[in-house]
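[#protein-structures] MJ: dropping Probable Fe(2+)-trafficking protein here for a structure pass
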Amino acid sequence: MSRTVFCVHLQQEAEGLDFQLYPGELGQRIFDTVSKQAWAQWQAKQTMLINEKKLNMMNVEHRQLLETEMVNFLFEGKDVVIDGYTPPAK
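AK: finished. structure tokens for Probable Fe(2+)-trafficking protein:
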């Protein structure tokens, strides 16, 4: 059975995640207030960030950078800015 959350990123009711995908309190906050759609949008941004900045997930600083970007994107309404990346024209 799918669950519905009020997605803080989309600012609307949407299908919630099936389970907590991120550890700790932040993970619980994401589970409670971020939709599958918003999480998928973040995952695309995260992949671009990792590739563009050549991040290593074994590096604590790199993980912290990603977490900061994730919070900014999901909760603060800030888009991820990737140097040298131009989004395709709509």
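MJ: nice. The chain has one domain: 4-75.
AK: one more thing. The chain has a mean pLDDT of 92.
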